[in-house]
Design goal:
- The protein is elongated.
- A hairpin with a 2-residue loop joins strand 4 and strand 5.
- It is built from eight helices and 13 strands.
- The chain is α+β, with helices and mostly antiparallel strands.
- It has a domain of 88 residues: Umud Fragment, subunit A (Ribbon), CATH 2.10.109.10.
Length: 314
């Protein structure tokens, strides 16, 4: 079979082929992103999913945590770290550091789960050589999809993470792609079709709903991938703050695309983890999407007319 320019052009315009290309590009982009994270953060598994409630309310079941490599001398009291279970090296534990000691045998680290009320965990003190890294960020919600795909939480396959990130990238590509079709009477008269208006309205409604949920949402879902399987809370930002207030005086702070909740407990501060702000992301996407549509509707046609006029005069 010989491919000509016309056949290649028809293939490129085929909507099924374009969907395939979009999926392939999303998978490639997500693979590059995750491999770059592994190199930049220096750990084999830079993205991990919380599957138990031992670190509630700081880390919730279904949170995706970002882990950066750290050596025992770089760890401070109060840091949340990931380490290999002394009884099963294939299992990773995430707990908070409360004591660090060093001697001829090397570093010994004592950790606790925030949900246990301050008593040392069953693994402590554990050898510093088992340290994997420090938790530097958490991303709420999306780890629940991973747990659903891997009940028991044992599989840390990077393929699943690639697929999840690819889905997010693909959704973004779809949102900002131009919706094309045959020009109808409405489009000829007003410059925009009824179908495109409905598309814009649907995307705005979806993004506004996501913004509202990311701020005030609260649902409970059955999570078979949790350890043990149980109902888990999916919390918006303000319900998350209220939940932390059940444990102590909660202090809320903003950052760029993040927020953090620290707790005053027993006269000391239990530091939270910078948390990815879905509210800020969805709000930014809403602004960019509407600006993109306004540009296509009002600015681009005028630019085309101006360009055509200059071309005809030249």
């Amino acid at each position: 079979m010989i491919l000509t320019k016309d056949s290649l052009r028809r293939l490129w315009r085929n909507k099924y082929f374009q969907v395939f290309v979009d999926i392939a590009l999303a998978l490639i982009a997500s693979s590059i992103l995750l491999l770059s994270l592994r190199l930049f953060l220096g750990v084999e598994y830079p993205l991990l999913v919380v599957s138990s409630g031992s670190m509630m309310p700081t880390l919730n079941i279904g949170d995706l945590i970002v882990v950066q490599r750290a050596e025992p001398p770089q760890i401070n009291i109060g840091d949340i770290v990931v380490f290999k279970n002394p009884r099963n090296s294939a299992e990773l534990i995430v707990h908070r550091v409360v004591k660090i000691s060093s001697g001829q045998d090397g570093y010994k680290i004592t950790t606790v789960g925030d949900a246990t009320g301050g008593s040392a965990d069953q693994f402590s003190p554990w050898d510093g050589s088992r340290l994997v890294g420090r938790v530097i960020m958490r991303v709420p919600y999306i780890g629940n999809l991973y747990l659903l795909l891997h009940p028991g939480g044992a599989d840390r396959s990077i393929l699943t993470a690639i697929i999840i990130v690819a889905i997010i990238i693909l959704i973004a590509m779809i949102l900002f792609s131009d919706v094309e079709g045959e020009d109808g009477e409405d489009e000829k008269r007003w410059g925009i079709s009824l179908e495109h208006i409905m598309y814009i309205a649907a995307v705005n409604l979806l993004l506004i709903s996501l913004i509202v949920f990311s701020l005030w949402g609260y649902i409970e879902i059955w999570q078979p991938g949790a350890i043990p399987p149980q109902k888990v809370k999916v919390l918006g930002m303000f319900p998350d703050l209220q939940w932390n207030e059940n444990y102590g005086e909660a202090n809320f702070s903003w950052g760029f695309m993040t927020y953090r909740i620290d707790c005053e407990i027993g006269g000391s501060t239990r530091l939270g983890v910078p948390t990815f702000s879905w509210f800020q992301l969805f709000f930014l996407i809403l602004i960019l999407f509407d600006a993109h549509e306004v540009f296509n509707l009002m600015v681009r046609p005028n630019l085309k007319k101006l360009h055509s006029r200059e071309f005809s005069e030249g």
